[in-house]
Design a protein that fits this description.
Number of domains: 1
Distance between the termini: 13 Å
Shape: globular
Order of helices and strands: HHEEHHEEHEEEEH
Helix content: 25-40%
Strand order of the largest sheet: 2-1-3-4-6-5-7-8
Largest sheet: 8 strands, mixed
Structural class: alpha+beta
């Protein structure tokens, strides 16, 4: 299944996606409870209006009970930005909303676990880390990248497999302040949440 997620998209789909000025992106959930959805940004930079944000939430449906949650606009913008950068016409959504994870950003619509077709997880994680004000976790064995939005960046590798306890190792923290400063200079801003430390997000992987 992980190999299928990483298989490159058909060339015709890639050409159509890259040639358009403002192409829609298709989000394909792994969960059978969620629905595949195509969403179109209101700008080439990846802003989405409220109607499209609501449509995107369908792809974030909880794998456990089918519930959903609103999606933070910046999270979706970063997913779209990554797809445009790697010419990926669709995104595999490994996990979106997890209502049981109230101490996790997955429980607030601030996090997503993804795979881009034809893109290694290490390349995707490296790209996302440089967006600033993000949490990025590379789940090496499970085969996906976690992305969340937050007030100060935090990066990690996790070598646990499905069903195993987290084996997290923090990485690249010496670069965080510079990355966030560069993001702020570009006009990016932190997503501030109360009662949540950088380390509280997503110690559990999406299974």
């Amino acid at each position: 299944m992980v190999r299928d997620w990483h298989r490159a998209a058909p060339p015709a789909d890639r050409r159509a996606f890259t040639s358009a000025d403002r192409p829609p992106i298709v989000m394909i959930p792994v969960s059978p409870l969620a629905q595949r959805v195509s969403i179109r940004p209101s700008s080439a930079s990846g802003d989405f209006d409220q109607a499209e944000l609501a449509r995107a939430s369908v792809a974030f449906v909880s794998r456990r009970d089918g519930t959903t949650h609103s999606v933070h606009p910046r999270l979706l913008k970063l997913v779209y930005r990554a797809a445009r950068n790697f010419h990926a016409p669709f995104v595999w959504v490994v996990s979106g909303y997890r209502g049981e994870s109230q101490t996790s950003r997955h429980g607030k619509g601030y996090a997503i676990d993804i795979v881009l077709p034809g893109v290694s997880d290490s390349r995707l994680a490296s790209y996302l880390r440089h967006q600033g004000f993000v949490g990025v976790g590379h789940y090496v064995v499970s085969g996906f990248v976690h992305l969340d939005v937050r007030d100060r960046s935090y990066f990690w590798l996790d070598s646990s497999g499905p069903g195993q306890p987290s084996r997290r190792r923090v990485v690249a923290m010496g670069a965080v302040d510079d990355i966030d400063a560069r993001a702020r200079a570009r006009g990016e801003g932190p997503v501030v949440e109360q009662h949540m430390s950088p380390e509280e997000s997503d110690t559990e992987a999406a299974r």
